[in-house]
UniProtKB/TrEMBL annotation:
Name assigned to this protein: SeT domain protein
Lineage, opening ranks: Bacteria, Pseudomonadati, Chlamydiota, Chlamydiia, Parachlamydiales
Residue intervals of the SET domain: 176-290
GO MF assignments: histone H4K20 methyltransferase activity
SMART domains xref list: SET (SM00317)
Keyword Manganese: no
This protein's record includes keyword Ribosomal protein: no
Organism: Simkania negevensis (strain ATCC VR-1471 / DSM 27360 / Z)
Amino acid sequence: MEFSRPFLNRLLLRRSAVFDKRLSEFKQGHRKIHAKDQDGNTLLHVAILENRLEYLEDLISYGLSPESENNWGMTPLDLAHFLGRQEFLPLLRAHREVAPITIYRNSDQMRHTISLKEFEQKLGIEYIEYLEFEHPDYLRWVATKSQKQLKKSTARKINRWTLALHKKAILTPRYDHIYIRYVSSEIGYGVFANRDLPALTYVGEYTGVVTRRQAKKTRFNDYVFGYMTGPKNCPFIIDAKRKSNFTRFINHSDEPNMNSRWVIVGGITRIILFTNEFIPKGEQLTYDYGKYYWRSRSAPALI
C-alpha cells in the first residue's frame, strides 16, 4: 500500500479542522464534552492526533480521561506513545522513569548500569519502549486490521492466552533480566541473560518506527523487522535503526533460543519475544531473522 505525498498533505489539511470544529460545537452547546466520534475518539484523542498540545490541560480539567478507550481499545495515552508525542506524556500521566540499562564491559569483565541518557548518547539512538508510527494513517490502518483479527475465533483465543502470560510484562517493561555485551567487530553487540530464564519467559517487545515497506531503502538496514498484523503480508515494517529498545541488539541464530509472536494490546498489534527453552545466566539470547541477516552489517559504536 502506497500513500503519495499529495494525498497525505490533503489528508492532513482535511483533518486539521476536525478538532476546531468539535471544540466550537462544545462551546456553542451543540456537543457534550465527553461525546465520541464514529471511531470512539474523544476530543482528547483528537487533540493528540492533531498535535494540539496547547489544549491538553484544559480538556483534562473538563474531565476527559487519558484512560478512555476508543473503538480500537486505544487510550489518549496510547496514542501519544504510538505517535511519538513525547511532550504530551507528562500531562497525561506521572512520568515513569525507564530503568537503567545493564552493560558488560570487556575491559574489566564486569557488568555496569548506565543511565538511559548515556546509553542514547554513546550509541546514537533514541530509546523508546513503544512502537512509534510515522504517520497517524499508518496507525489507523494497523488498528483496523488488528480489530479484524480479533473477530476471528482462533486469533482471539491465541491473543487471550498470550495476554494471560505476558500482559503485565508488556505494559510495565523491566530490564534486570538482560544485559548488553560487545561480542566482536563482525557481530557487534548481543543481548545476554542476566539470570536463569525459564522457557516461555517474556524478554521484550521489538520496538521501532513503523513505516512503509520500501525494498530499496530497507535492503541494507540491519534493524528492520517484518511487521505482521495477521496471516497476510503487511505493507509496513518496524525500523529500529534510530529508535528502539534493547531488542535491536538481539542477534541471529539458525537455532534460536527465542521465538516471536504478535499480540494485540492497546488497540494495535505488537511483536513480542519470549524464550523457547531454558536459558542459563550468561548465555546469549538469539532469534532467527532469516537467511539474509548476515548479508550486510554496519560497524557498531562502543559503549
